[in-house]
Amino acid sequence: MNTPDRKTAHDILKQASEMNPGNWIGHSQNTADAAEKIARHIKGLDREKAYTAGLLHDIGRREGVRNLHHIICGYEYMMSLGYDGTAKISMTHSFALKNLNTYLGEYDCTDAELNFIRTYIANIQYDDYDLLIQLCDCLALSDGLCIIEQRLVDVAMRYGFNELTIPKWKKIFEIKTYFEKIIGKSIYDVLEIMPVRVK
User: Fold this and answer.
1) Which uninterrupted H or E stretch holds 56?
2) In the chain, what's the furthest Cα-to-Cα distance?
3) Is residue 78 within 8 Å of 84, Cβ to Cβ?
4) 125, 128, 124, 134: which is closest to 46 by C-alpha?
5) Element (H, E) at 177
6) Is the pTM of this model over 0.90?
7) Mapping DSSP to helix (H, G, I), strand (E, B) and coil, where does residue 103 land?
8) For residues 111 and 132, what is the distance between their CA atoms, to the nearest angstrom?
9) Nearest to residue 35, comparing CAs of 24, 46, 23?
10) pLDDT tens sequence across 32-87
11) Domain 6-190, CATH class in plain words
12) pLDDT for 90-108, tens place per residue?
């Protein structure tokens, strides 16, 4: 699957930041940094591909303030540039659970777009890049990296929660454990994040 090189990805994000500046730019950069650092420790993962996937996972926000619609916007934009690998990440990054209803926020899509996202997510096979960006998306704020709980609460405070929120959170922690078993140590150690230790 095709993905842009690092310079091209930065050029794409720079243009997007001029179209729609905001906290999502810093979040995207932090997601990319985390993905690259983790990928360095996993045999078979290309750290450049991981980096650009993280950098452009929210690229659909280039079109302005969007909720669910940023997913389809990102997919269509990346496909138009010939980057089907990055387009896939645009679609999968918000769905650790393969269920459209796990998305928190406004469903600002047409019925046809909702059906497309629902069908795409149900039928796509996730690979380690999809899982890595789902994880790193939950580690990145606009101004740095954080423990997963901080990011999940941040999202819930802004968008609320539903009956699928806790199952989605559990899935994110399963992904964290999956990568930690491969690496042999905590993701937080790799990223030099100091989680609060409960005694």
Assistant:
1) none
2) 52
3) yes
4) 128
5) helix 165-183
6) yes
7) coil
8) 29
9) 46
10) 999 999 999 999 999 999 999 999 999 999 988 889 999 999 999 999 999 999 99
11) mainly alpha
12) 999 999 999 999 998 889 9
